[in-house]
Amino acid sequence: MKDLVTLLTDDLLGTGLACVKRFVRQLHVHVIICDLPSACSSYIPCLSLILPTHLTQKDFGCIDVFVNCASITLSQQIFEHSFENFNRIIDVNTNGTYNMIQHMIPLMVNNEIIINMSYVAAFEGRRGQTVYATSKEVIVKMARPLAEELASMNICVCDIVPDVFDTSLLRELHVKVSNIPGDFSLFSARLGDSDEFAQVVQTIVENPLVNDISIRVDALLRMPSE
């Protein structure tokens, strides 16, 4: 993976930050972050922040790996969910994912990889997640047709489908892991560490036969419906 160019969209407070740390520090991968400048963590060394795609092409030539992690969520039942909030979630999670893929394809030359992040709500949405679950299921459904359409360009498309991870974002929201409801009786009886998400990304990148697949990363954790 050394010297690969990876573009990642994320708020850098969750699983995306773990990807940046692993790729830069351990794998010596060039990382480009597509996000607001205020979101960048200054303590990550060798970090490039480039927003316009033409700058990316000028400086790096092409994108080898595109990791699409940017996402927002809002838990509200339909009785109280405004159409404005509906549009915002769909616009970021669904339209944003599709839009970024369209812009990345011209920068991907050969044997490249697109990794989108969905969420277990795509399969098991809970009360208050009607809109969020919808936005994430669309991402899962994209994988197959995208993989077929991009096969002639040797571009693979995969999804990672995580549940709640113990991240800095979770801690910033002052959510105690011990207060998260769920069945922790099954192995491995804990929330995932954000670096374990990054390990899944690495596995997908390193294995050329992984294509058109949605990988659940939740250790059998099942949340209650409420």
Question: How do the helices and strands line up, and which of them pair or pack?
Answer:
Elements: E1 5-9, H1 15-26, E2 30-34, E3 48-49, H2 53-60, E4 65-68, H3 83-104, E5 112-117, H4 121-124, H5 130-150, E6 155-162, E7 165-166, H6 168-172, E8 192-193, H7 194-206, E9 213-217
Helix pairs in contact: 1-7, 3-5
GO molecular function, one term: estradiol 17-beta-dehydrogenase [NAD(P)+] activity
Pfam family, one: adh_short_C2
GO cellular component, one term: mitochondrion
Concise overview:
The chain has seven helices and nine strands. With 226 residues, the chain is of the alpha/beta class. It has a single domain, classed as Rossmann fold (3-Layer(aba) Sandwich), CATH 3.40.50.
Description:
With 226 residues, the chain is of the alpha/beta class. It has a single domain (5-217), classed as NAD(P)-binding Rossmann-like Domain (Rossmann fold, 3-Layer(aba) Sandwich), CATH 3.40.50.720. 38% of the residues lie in helices and 17% in strands. Strand 1, helix 1 and strand 2 (30-34) form a beta-alpha-beta unit. The radius of gyration is 17 Å and the shape is globular. Residues 45-52 have low confidence and may be disordered.
Question: Over all CA atoms, what is the radius of gyration?
Answer: 17 Å
User: What is the CATH class designation?
Assistant: Alpha Beta
Our count of helices gives 7
CATH architecture: 3-Layer(aba) Sandwich
Number of strands: 9
Distance between the termini: 42 Å
Note poorly predicted spans: 45-52
Strand order of the largest sheet: 3-2-1-4-5-6-9
CATH H level, superfamily name: NAD(P)-binding Rossmann-like Domain
Largest sheet: 7 strands, parallel
Total number of domains: 1
Q: Tell the overall outline.
A: globular
Strand content: 15-25%
CATH fold name: Rossmann fold
Helix percent reads: 25-40%
The overall average pLDDT, rounded, is 79
Q: SSE order in H/E notation? A: EHEEHEHEHHEEHEHE
